[in-house]
Specification:
four-stranded antiparallel sheet; 20% strand; 2 domains; 4 strands
């Protein structure tokens, strides 16, 4: 697909806000005919720009109102150590995001749980038991004035 134009960006902004919007409503909001709008959305899907549609949940309502970003350093930088850590994070229900990063740490995690006590349990019983984890730095989310992941 060629570079995205302003109309494509408007479509994506509207779909991020309300993915269940009807094609007719979307077309009205961006100023296209319904058929032209549908063709553009389908092309964005075919090209992989739109990879899927998701449900956005309220962490508080789900009992996961406590969030932290956690920097994790590994003592071993082998492929096996990284794969083992990634497998463990993939099944940890508290971990909503796991990113392998460049810099002073190997990973940054987004961890969501009910409260500080639950986070301490995750910190101790999940991260603290991984054999190659040698550094954990937690950043507690105090508020989120902008969060485009969940709009």
């Amino acid at each position: 697909m060629a570079l995205l134009d302003e109309t494509d960006h408007r479509i994506l902004r509207e779909l991020r806000r309300e993915a269940r919007i009807s094609n007719v409503q979307l077309a009205e909001r961006i100023g296209l005919s319904p058929s032209a709008c549908l063709r553009r959305v389908q092309e964005l899907e075919r090209a992989g720009v739109i990879r899927g549609y998701r449900v956005v949940t309220d962490p508080e309502a789900m009992g996961r109102g406590f969030a932290a970003y956690v920097m994790v350093g590994l003592s071993s930088h082998t492929k096996a150590a990284q794969e083992g850590f990634e497998r463990a994070m993939a099944i940890a229900r508290e971990v909503t995001e796991c990113h392998n990063i460049a810099g002073a740490f190997e990973y940054i995690l987004r961890v969501e749980c009910a409260n500080l006590s639950d986070y301490k349990r995750f910190h101790t019983d999940v991260l603290g038991t991984r054999s190659h984890v040698n550094a954990i730095t937690s950043y507690i989310v105090m508020g989120s004035p902008k969060d485009d992941r969940a709009t």
